[in-house]
Specification:
Layout (H helix, E strand, L loop, with lengths): L1 H7 L2 H9 L2 H4 L3 E6 L6 E4 L3 H7 L9 H8 L2 H4 L22 E3 L2 H4 L3 H15 L3 H18 L19 E5 L2 H19 L3 E7 L6 E5 L6 E4 L2 E4 L21 E2 H16 L4 E5 L16 H14 L5 E7 L8 E8 L17 H6 L11 H11 L4 H4 L14 H20 L3 H4 L2 H15 L1 H6 L4 H14 L9
Parallel strand pairs: 1-4
Antiparallel strand pairs: 1-2, 3-4, 5-6, 6-9, 7-8, 10-11, 11-12
């Protein structure tokens, strides 16, 4: 299953997902400071390209591609998306780079003593990295500007409208910029991939040869008091992390980073239910408005269905928890987004359609797919089903929801969910569809308090009946 994660996006694409929308980041300012500390260059992230061409200092750099990558400060400040493992930990300058920094309110308002304390922690950790070993002179120049505080770096932004979330980029000589990118890649791997199991081997995911790592991110779950590792063969998932057995599942640096970023992406946006295809190519833009609610997942599956020329496809629904410890992969083969065309009914031919129109109610749509079924069922459950379809505990449902409706959601969301996502047709084969509507309508007709509390009158009851008749053909036997 992890191989599908590896093949889903590239490392850069995962990073772009973690960085969020470009519009938000382009509002941030970038203050570029040459190491001589004589002046600063102010620009916006979205205008770095233009500034690098027009500015006298920046235009002298011959490798324009390397320079533009270097000036993209947000890529280097927190690439692990974990403040606990940056240079100097939480007491430092909150960065994974010796040249790139994101400004916080504490940093902007700090006095000289406060800056010196942060620099001391930052320096101690920085001196253990390749940054310092191979670019020590430039690193010392940056540290000196920080250590001088109000006489060093602070005057360089004094005349700017700098704010929380803006960036400082210290500009080293071109030779150091050339060194920086490969060093950053090595640094990042060391910070993220702590468990290197062998210096040379075949990656279990992509098959490339090189150093191999055992994942920890997205690879653990709790069993008693000990941390257990998931990426093992089924018979060995509780063995030691440093085991040299060939039954382990070690992966190369690139595949390990992809998996790390995948789970960081899920954590950042709280996507604890995530659907993705196994063989169809998707892009990060396809997930721009993704939601882990049932409607959002089906909307994503529709995009995949359209990319696959309206043919069935295989996909995986990953379900996990906020700590990414309990992970479940559900593999679904030959998923059909559209319902059976042979059983399709034109909404205008459904009993009560004309009556619903005459009462002035909005008619149901004539679409015939799983998303339309969910939206139509949502009408029946007072627009609460889509948000609650994966819920198993009635205490977690909307508090104001009527107890009877809570009971029916918990009772029927599994067969509905299984039909919509997992190719299980018991909802109609076992005539659960009919039973569900019979119970709901019976309660609406007999229980006046329920009807009044839900504000459901004759128009809404007719519309509920219309939903029932629209899909009754899926039971392959008309029920009057």
């Amino acid at each position: 299953m992890y191989n599908f994660i590896v093949n889903l996006f590239s490392v850069d694409e995962y990073i772009s997902l973690l960085e969020g929308s470009e519009n938000a980041s382009q509002k941030s300012k970038v203050i570029i400071i040459p190491l001589d500390g004589k002046e600063s260059i102010e620009t916006d992230i979205g205008n770095v390209d233009e500034t690098s061409s027009s500015n006298d200092i920046l235009s002298k750099y011959s490798n324009r591609e390397d320079l533009l990558r270097f000036l993209k400060a947000n890529s280097f400040v927190n690439p692990t998306h974990n403040n606990a493992n940056n240079i100097g930990k939480n007491k430092g300058l909150m960065s994974h780079s010796s040249f790139h920094f994101k400004l916080t309110e504490k940093l902007i308002n700090a006095d000289n003593d406060g800056i010196k304390r942060k620099i001391a922690d930052f320096r101690k950790d920085l001196e253990t990295t390749d940054y310092y070993y191979k670019m020590g002179k430039s690193c010392d120049a940056v540290l000196e500007l920080w250590e001088n505080g109000h006489e060093g770096v602070f005057p360089l932004w004094a005349n700017t409208e700098i704010k929380k979330g803006d960036y400082l980029v210290f500009l080293p000589p071109e030779t150091d910029i050339e060194k920086f990118h490969p060093m950053f890649k090595v640094y990042l791997a060391r910070r993220v991939l702590k468990y290197r199991v062998t210096d040379s081997g075949i990656c279990s995911a992509c098959g490339k040869e090189g150093p191999l790592y055992m994942l920890t991110q997205g690879n653990t779950f709790d069993l008693g008091k000990d941390r257990k590792f998931l990426l093992r063969k089924p018979t060995r998932f509780m063995t030691n992390i440093r085991s040299k057995s060939t039954n382990d599942y070690p992966v190369c640096e690139e595949c390990a980073l992809k998996t790390y970023y995948f789970f960081e992406y899920l954590k950042k946006y709280k996507l604890y239910r995530f659907a993705f295809p196994t063989t169809i190519t998707v892009h990060t833009d396809d997930y721009k408005d993704y939601s882990q609610q049932a409607k959002g997942i089906l909307s994503m599956l529709k995009k995949i269905y359209d990319k696959n020329h309206s043919k069935p496809f295989d996909y995986i629904l990953l379900t996990t928890d906020p700590k990414i410890k309990n992970i479940e992969f559900r593999y679904v083969s030959d998923f059909k987004f559209n319902l059976d065309d042979d059983l399709k009914r034109n909404i205008r031919d459904v009993p009560l359609y004309d009556t619903v129109i005459e009462t002035g109610s909005d008619p149901l749509g004539n679409e015939w797919n799983k998303l339309s079924l969910l939206l139509d069922y949502d009408v029946v459950f007072n627009n609460t089903l889509s948000k609650s379809l994966f819920e198993t505990n009635p205490k977690n449902l909307i508090k104001s929801l009527h107890p009877f409706l809570k009971l029916k959601i918990i009772e029927y969301n599994e067969p509905i969910r299984n039909f919509l996502f997992f190719n299980n047709a018991s909802l109609f084969k076992d005539r659960i569809h009919t039973r569900m509507f019979r119970e709901l309508l019976s309660e609406l007709i007999e229980n006046e308090n329920f009807r009044d509390e839900m504000k459901i009158g004759a128009k809404k009851i007719r519309k509920i009946l219309l939903v029932y008749y629209k899909y009754i053909s899926l039971e392959k036997k008309e029920v009057i």
